[in-house]
Write a structure and sequence with these properties.
Low-confidence stretches: 176-188
Shape: globular
Helix content: 55-70%
Largest sheet: 2 strands, antiparallel
Strand order of the largest sheet: 1-2
Structural class: mainly alpha
Mean pLDDT: 85
Strand content: under 5%
Number of strands: 2
Radius of gyration: 18 Å
Length: 188
């Protein structure tokens, strides 16, 4: 019971990196231009997409390094706290955390194993982030794949207070607006 009151505070560098990554994941451009659902699931997918390159970059050879583990632990702690904040019962939190952990590891492996193969990475983005497994060749899926590659290139192999995150607007797909579709229908 008392461990709740005496939890270790995360390293300030871990907390700063995590907060910067989550702030980037919450950028409105992902939900307006990329087509990510602005739901709990959509936001979870964006946090996972953003945190994966940083945890991977902090690996120590094949094993997760101390800093990578600290970042992963902070991610899990934040997810646990968010579940409790939205009113998930204490008895349900462990089950939901187990599902979230499995989802994280599945996406972590899928995204990192698909790196370097644009089509495979876009398919993983369509399946997981966009929840459109039947549209692996969508412009949004390819834009997310390119953005993920840029995130991986920007992820430092040591903790830094200010990561150099890529601008998501630079990768945003060119989406035809509803107005353009309506004009095309009227013209035909």
């Amino acid at each position: 019971m008392f461990r709740f009151f005496f939890r270790n505070k995360p390293d300030p560098a871990v907390r700063q990196l995590y907060e910067a990554v989550v702030a980037q994941a919450r950028s409105p451009v992902f939900y307006t231009n990329y087509g990510v659902a602005d739901t709990l699931d959509g936001r979870f997918e964006m946090v996972v997409l953003h945190i994966t390159p940083f945890i991977n970059a902090l690996k120590d050879g094949e094993a997760m390094g101390v800093d990578g583990q600290a970042l992963f632990d902070h991610f899990l702690s934040d997810m646990d706290q968010n579940l409790r904040t939205i009113g998930v019962s204490d008895l349900s939190v462990p089950k939901k955390m187990k599902k979230m952990g499995a989802a994280f590891y599945g996406r972590y492996e899928a995204y990192l194993s698909a790196r370097g193969d644009r089509a495979d990475l876009a398919a993983a983005m369509a399946r997981n982030v966009l929840d459109e497994p039947g549209r692996p060749d969508s412009p949004a899926a390819f834009a997310l794949a390119e953005y993920f590659e840029a995130l991986c290139a920007a992820a430092p192999d040591r903790l830094e207070a200010r990561p150099n995150l890529p601008d998501p607007h630079a990768f945003a797909p060119r989406m035809a607006g509803a107005g353009a579709a309506a004009v095309a229908e009227v013209a035909s």
